[in-house]
């Protein structure tokens, strides 16, 4: 028998009263018991209060059996080290996120990686001698969980790359119009913060009810608790983390610089280096090269770490979409759908009808507005067929997601729409009339700020939830804070629209904000319950095209405020739910989000300018390199030109259907995608058709139209190994090390890419390429597939 040591949990509030009140025997499985922890870092599940024979069938059981519910209200949050580490990691995360944005395959800064780095730095500050007032100021004592969460929320808010930099990059690359620094930064502030204001006033509906679990935050909350409830276990996990992290850092030098062939090893291309079909099907180590089928990727930057944490059902649905995408895209290309063979197999740029790159300056008149006569003379823009097909399928995915949630989760979300019933609207109108006739007196302001000035009351859907009950001890954020952010963001956005001469009128700007609120309200419901969402950028661009036709830059601004707000609002709600699990006061969360978002916007802008200035030619090229790519900016601009500038011509030509009329129709087709499976499950539940997620399938049917695709085989192999084998047959091993390994991989990649970007990849202004050899084919595709030169 292993020798064990008994470790007491961190100081916590007594929850016995709550347990008795709500009759929850399992409310605090970890905090109410001590855990037997072996010297190897393993935890005896029974002694920790975690039983393996109980089921987790409801959201309440999930959040009380897997997470600790204790709280220590005495923990200090606003320490000097918390602000220094939070702002420092915000700068690091923002720079790294912007670098990732200009990669051939867009990846995000891992929040798990930020958690681990923040913990290591926070624990390092504890070593500072506490001599005198200065020592106690720099080292206020043990590094607490609340400080840790405060730092990570600040850093993750900054690490979410601002979509506004995409617009600024497009204006610089394609329109020769780069706004001054003040205008650009204020636009980023406005577009990043407006999402907070949109849902801030009704945030409680998405955070308080237990049914809104926010699945993506559960592993993060568990990781925080594993680090702070028991220090010995944390040290063991950190040793493993750093071993894997350093190993990944050392290895990533190989595919990123020395031996790029390992980004996508294709035995088919090595066997036949003269086949265009093999390049399109099996190639994928370069951006926009091919579909990467059966290629093996050894670059963890592109494999990523998400597959280790995604549910098995999600991976299965993605795999169905992946296989379908290969068949659909190849079928469309070789059947010459939309004149596919005239254009490159994969590309995000626009083309003329004869296949040359579309010169948008030929159709733009004054103020970057499309000139109809010049458009008729030069010709209509065309998409690569894989790109048009991707837009079609992702449009289907947007409405499929809406219908999927309505069919499967309506009972979970219907109460949110109760205020919009005619009777409720009538009551609200009556209240406004009363206030108007009697003046906005003290009773009005009392109601306006009641969420902050009065104790938090019982909220529908929170019955028996000890996490919510513990948070009732903290003051809420006044709603007018969020409303003020919304008002200021709208005002700044309107000023930037006119100062930058985008051509977007004020009424269209306000409609974009309204559209963002509608989309965000719905997708926040979906993500909070089922754990995924898709940013409907293309749909917003199409809607903006009808409102403000023939103005590409105006369309980009409309899309920025109509789509980016969704990302920021969901980020805000996810942080608030994480704060509830970690018992971080709402006002501390609000401060961390605002500081991180504003700091991140500045560093996003600085890094974007550096990359655009130094890598301009690569960002404008169709294929790019395996290090840098302008595919995101190309997509953003090409859709702005196509939909915002020429939508009427490409959809309807000479009074009949135009070439791409089916693309926006995808929004209509997606409505019907989930229905057969819902009906089938209703009558034949034994078929388990409820596991089919048409949103994921439709989205992945258009997944392979861009970037480096050689990583998908490894993605599914590791994902099915972790979720299909380890989780099912080795649950203890999975629970102990899966998240740690995923974090270490993400951390190693993030650190080495940050270093290599400035050391050898040209981020500092000068690229230092590794000498050319067989494994570093700089004159073609690195996987030795036939180089098609964008054809």
Automatic annotation (TrEMBL):
Segments traversing the membrane: 82-101, 107-128, 149-169, 181-202, 240-258, 319-338, 480-499, 506-534, 554-576, 588-607, 660-680, 692-717, 737-761
Gene source species: Neurospora tetrasperma (strain FGSC 2508 / ATCC MYA-4615 / P0657)
Top-level division of the source organism's lineage: Eukaryota
Family membership noted in the UniProt record: Belongs to the oligopeptide OPT transporter family.
PANTHER family from the UniProt entry: ISP4 LIKE PROTEIN
A GO molecular-function annotation: oligopeptide transmembrane transporter activity
GO cellular component terms, semicolon-separated: membrane
Taxonomic lineage: Eukaryota, Fungi, Dikarya, Ascomycota, Pezizomycotina
Stated name of the protein: OPT superfamily oligopeptide transporter
Pfam families from the UniProt entry: OPT (PF03169)
NCBIfam families, alphabetized: OPT_sfam
Membrane-protein topology: Multi-pass membrane protein
GO terms for biological process, alphabetical: protein transport
Predominant location: membrane
Sorted UniProt keywords: Membrane, Peptide transport, Protein transport, Transmembrane, Transmembrane helix, Transport
Location(s) in or outside the cell: Membrane
């Amino acid at each position: 028998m292993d020798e064990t040591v008994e470790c007491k949990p961190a100081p916590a509030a007594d929850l016995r009263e709550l347990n008795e009140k709500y009759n929850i025997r399992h409310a605090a499985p970890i905090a109410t018991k001590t855990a037997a922890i072996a010297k190897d870092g393993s935890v005896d599940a029974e002694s920790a209060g975690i039983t393996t024979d109980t089921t987790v069938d409801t959201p309440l059981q999930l959040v009380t059996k897997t997470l600790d519910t204790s709280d220590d209200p005495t923990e200090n949050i606003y320490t000097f080290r918390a602000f220094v580490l939070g702002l420092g990691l915000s700068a690091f995360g923002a720079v790294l996120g912007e670098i990732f944005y200009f990669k051939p395959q867009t990846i995000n800064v891992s929040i798990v990686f930020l958690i681990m780095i923040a913990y290591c730095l926070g624990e390092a500050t504890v070593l500072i001698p506490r001599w005198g007032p200065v020592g106690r100021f720099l080292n206020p004592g043990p590094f607490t969980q609340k400080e840790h969460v405060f730092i990570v929320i600040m850093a993750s808010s900054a690490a979410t790359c601002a979509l506004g930099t995409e617009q600024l990059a497009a204006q610089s690359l394609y329109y020769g119009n780069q706004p001054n620094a003040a205008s650009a930064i204020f636009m980023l502030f406005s577009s990043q913060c407006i999402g907070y204001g949109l849902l801030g006033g009704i945030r409680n509906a998405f955070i308080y009810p237990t049914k809104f679990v926010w699945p993506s935050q559960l592993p993060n909350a568990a990781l925080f608790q594993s680090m702070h409830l028991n220090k010995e276990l944390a040290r063991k996990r950190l040793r493993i983390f750093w071993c894997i992290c350093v190993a990944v850092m050392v290895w990533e030098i190989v595919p990123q610089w020395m031996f790029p062939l390992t980004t996508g090893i294709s035995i088919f291309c090595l066997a036949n280096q003269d086949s265009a079909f093999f390049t399109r099907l099996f190639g994928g180590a370069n951006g926009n090269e091919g579909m990467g089928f059966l290629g093996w990727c050894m670059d963890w930057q592109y494999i990523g770490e998400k597959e280790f944490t995604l549910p098995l059902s999600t991976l299965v649905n993605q795999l169905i979409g992946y296989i379908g995408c290969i068949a659909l895209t190849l079928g469309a290309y070789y059947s010459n759908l939309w004149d596919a063979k005239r254009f490159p197999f994969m590309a995000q740029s626009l083309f003329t009808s004869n296949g040359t790159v579309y010169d948008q300056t030929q159709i733009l008149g004054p103020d970057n507005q499309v000139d109809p006569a010049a458009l008729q003379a030069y010709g209509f823009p065309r998409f690569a067929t894989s790109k048009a097909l991707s837009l079609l399928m992702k449009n289907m995915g947007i409405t499929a997601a809406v219908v999927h949630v309505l069919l499967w989760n309506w009972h979970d979300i219907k109460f949110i729409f109760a205020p919009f019933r005619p009777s409720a609207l009538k009551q609200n109108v009556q209240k406004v009339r009363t206030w108007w006739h009697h003046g906005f007196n003290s009773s009005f302001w009392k109601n306006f700020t009641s969420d902050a000035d009065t104790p938090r009351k019982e909220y529908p859907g929170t019955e028996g939830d000890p996490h919510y009950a513990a948070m009732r001890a903290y003051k809420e954020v006044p709603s007018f804070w969020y409303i003020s952010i919304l008002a200021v963001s709208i005002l700044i956005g309107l000023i930037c629209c006119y100062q930058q001469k985008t051509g977007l009128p004020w009424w269209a700007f306000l409609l974009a904000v309204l559209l963002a609120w509608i989309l965000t309200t719905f997708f926040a419901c979906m993500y909070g319950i089922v754990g995924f969402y898709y940013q409907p950028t293309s749909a917003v661009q199409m809607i903006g095209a009808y409102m403000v036709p023939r103005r590409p830059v105006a369309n980009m601004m409309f899309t920025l405020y109509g789509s980016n707000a969704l990302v920021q609002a969901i980020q805000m709600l996810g942080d608030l739910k994480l704060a509830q699990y970690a018992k971080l006061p709402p006002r501390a969360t609000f401060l961390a989000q605002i500081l991180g978002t504003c700091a991140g916007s500045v560093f996003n802008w600085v890094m974007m300018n550096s990359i655009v200035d130094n890598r301009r030619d690569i960002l404008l090229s169709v294929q790019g390199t395996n290090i840098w790519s302008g595919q995101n900016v190309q997509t953003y601009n090409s859709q702005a030109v196509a939909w915002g500038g020429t939508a009427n011509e490409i959809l309807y030509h000479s009074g009949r259907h135009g070439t791409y009329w089916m693309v926006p129709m995808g929004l209509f087709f997606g409505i019907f995608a989930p229905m057969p499976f819902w009906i089938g499950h209703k009558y034949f539940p034994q078929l388990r058709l409820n596991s089919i997620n048409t949103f994921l399938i439709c989205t992945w049917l258009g997944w392979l139209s861009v970037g480096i695709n050689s990583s998908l085989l490894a993605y599914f192999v590791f994902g099915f190994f972790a979720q299909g084998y380890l989780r099912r047959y080795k649950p203890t091993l999975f629970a102990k090390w899966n998240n740690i390994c995923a974090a270490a991989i993400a951390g190693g990649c993030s650190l080495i890419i940050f270093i290599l970007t400035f050391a050898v990849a040209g981020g500092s202004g000068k690229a230092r390429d590794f000498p050319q050899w067989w494994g570093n084919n700089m004159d073609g595709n690195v996987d030795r597939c036939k180089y098609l030169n964008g054809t």
